[in-house]
Design a protein that fits this description.
about 500 residues; five-stranded mixed sheet; about 55% helix; four-stranded antiparallel sheet; binds 2-acetamido-2-deoxy-beta-D-glucopyranose; globular; binds protoporphyrin IX containing FE; alpha+beta
């Protein structure tokens, strides 16, 4: 019997391996016309790519993109079904930013990057981005007011309220549940957002979507399919997806019923108070429960971890460089109304500080990831992209380009964007935090840019303003006061590593 198993499995294994090698061979040839960029010192190990991608992209960008040429870098991480990332120069991004997903598919790219076939993470659907963008755009004033109140409530019950009590928090441990709670209270209905189990699950899957993808990609593609169902983070993610569906069922059925009986118009939904209504307002009439609940799960995944990392990095940047503290605190106090709410329009210096923080430490080194589904030849360079090419934008490398930002382009300057904006009144608004331009790709660019970016930016500004006005803050690393200056942030593949060792000590200020 064991002999029979060996007799059958060996040829299958050999056939699969040969097919895999053949595919890699033909793949390599199809991309021969695009130069490959490697580490110049010759160490091109997997670990090097995982840890040092930022430097590799920066040197590649300076070498090739400056001459208007795309270049490619290897993806040495298992589990990806593509072998290269093709990094496009800025003018190429401009050309493709509005091309439909039928040529440059973000849905496929997202499936590949998040190893979706293996992890069972919900897919990036075609209608949700626009639905969310329209909903947030139409209701931003109300959203900001509600965010302000929810943050007050959350900080009021989770942080010290008098000067005799001090408290130490770790950024990620604090922000992930805080943002899950606050974001949930705006995106799903109150029944769910007040349910501790829902918040717990939301925190879990927001983190687990990334973890499960990393766990799967630790294996080569051939093994990943076999191993995935056994990986704990993957099992947890699949369970969460079923949980979200269960919880969304009554909400979905209620909306469906009201829509069928004519009480509910799409127009009214788009002006609703909650994210699930905006989504419904932009969903196809025959949207299924699975599609709707997956969309909600993806939206929460897209919003929580990204926002938590961005505000953690911003706080580390600020508290490790105390020279910026006084002016930002003064501005935040001046923006505070009598009822404690914040007028975020007045947070000009904070906006500039956040923009600088994101410029140097974006959550993602690469954005605008796409997979080419119909061969395309760029008009700007004549370079052809065969079917199956993964294209991307070197977000961090572009944001540290000395031709754009000067010789100190790799140094932190909290006033940089103040100067840029004050000296360029006409182009001023394009330099605001959250605006997507070809020099500022942290939220993507064009029709597929992050639909939640102003939601995120306003939430971050409100939280920071409240921290600054109400508490004295001391930066800590592993629970000890940190005096080491602005730390070097680490990346894992193309995502910033959550700065989990950092946190802060809070002591309530007497005067507000
Ligand atoms: C600072 C925090 C955030 C960052 C850095 C960020 C960044 C991004 C980026 C780079 C993309 C991909 C754009 C592309 O394909 O070119 C994206 C997509 C998306 N973002 Fe954000 N985002 C943040 C917060 C949010 C928030 C708060 C929401 C929701 C309220 C949100 C919802 C989405 C959605 C729905 C997508 C579409 C892709 C998908 O379904 O996975 N994001 N975001
Ligand atoms: C592009 O989007 C459409 C819906 O807008 C979808 O049906 C199609 O599958 C997508 N194509 C690819 C290649 O992702
Ligand atoms: C969310 O935070 C509020 C305070 O703002 C709290 O009353 C509520 O219980 C929290 N929700 C959950 C589910 O923990
Ligand atoms: C300060 O607040 C804590 C809880 O936040 C409370 O236990 C304590 O009694 C308060 N102390 C004073 C002096 O009000």
């Amino acid at each position: 019997m064991p002999n029979l198993i060996i007799l059958v499995s060996v040829p299958i294994f050999v056939a699969v391996t040969l097919q895999y090698l053949y595919r890699n061979f033909t793949q390599d040839r199809a991309w021969n016309h695009i130069p490959t960029h490697e580490f110049e010192d010759g160490d091109n190990s997997r670990d090097r790519y995982v840890r040092d991608l930022k430097d590799l992209l920066e040197s590649g960008y300076r070498k090739y993109s400056k001459q208007g040429l795309p270049f490619k870098v290897k993806i040495p991480i298992g589990g990806y079904s593509v072998r290269y990332r093709v990094v496009l120069p800025k003018d190429h991004l401009e050309e493709m930013k509005h091309l439909s997903n039928n040529t440059f598919s973000w849905a496929l790219a997202s499936a590949v990057i998040f190893a979706q076939d293996f992890t069972g993470a919900p897919p990036r659907g075609p209608w949700s981005g626009k639905a969310l963008r329209v909903g947030i755009h139409q209701n931003l004033g109300d959203i900001t007011k509600k965010l302000d109140q929810q943050i007050d409530m959350y900080f009021g019950t989770h942080l010290p309220q008098n000067s005799s009590m001090i408290m130490s928090i770790r950024f990620m441990d604090f922000f992930v549940p805080a943002i899950a709670n606050i974001t949930s209270s705006l995106l799903v209905d109150e029944r769910l957002s007040s349910n501790p189990e829902w918040i717990q699950q939301t925190c879990d899957f927001a983190v687990n979507r990334y973890k499960s993808a990393d766990d799967v990609r630790a294996y080569p593609p051939l093994l990943a399919a076999l191993v995935a169902p056994l990986i704990p983070s993957v099992r947890q993610l699949r369970k969460s997806r079923r949980y979200v569906k269960e919880q969304m069922t009554p909400l979905y059925e209620d909306m469906k019923m009201r829509q069928n009986s004519g009480i509910l118009s799409k127009e009214k939904c788009r002006k609703g108070a909650f994210g699930f209504e905006w989504l419904w307002g932009g969903a196809p009439d025959d949207v299924t429960l699975d599609d709707f609940s997956d969309t909600m799960m993806r939206t929460l995944i897209a919003s929580i971890h990204t926002t938590a990392k961005t505000i953690s990095v911003a706080l580390i940047d600020l508290l490790s460089q105390p020279q910026y503290m006084d002016e930002l605190r003064r501005e935040a106090m001046e923006a505070t109304e009598f009822d404690g709410s914040i007028d975020i329009e007045k947070l000009f210096k904070m906006d500039c500080f956040l923009k600088e923080s994101q410029r140097l430490t974006p959550v993602f080194l690469l954005t605008m990831n796409r997979i080419v589904t119909q061969s395309y030849t760029f008009k700007v360079s004549g370079t052809s992209m065969p079917v199956g090419t993964m294209t991307t934008a070197a977000t961090a490398a572009i944001a540290t380009d000395p031709d754009t930002f000067g010789i100190d382009s790799n140094c932190f300057d909290g006033s940089r964007f103040q100067r840029l904006r004050l000296s360029n009144k006409a182009g001023e608004s394009a330099l605001k935090m959250g605006m997507a331009t070809e020099d500022s790709l942290g939220f993507g660019l064009g029709s597929q840019a992050c639909p939640g970016r102003f939601f995120a930016v306003n939430q971050i500004k409100l939280m920071l303003a409240k921290f600054l006005t109400r508490w004295e803050l001391t930066l800590e690393k592993n629970g000890q006061k940190w005096l080491g200056g602005r730390p070097k942030y680490e990346y894992y593949d193309f995502s910033v590593v959550a700065p989990a060792e950092y946190g802060m000590l809070l002591r309530r200020r007497e005067i507000i």
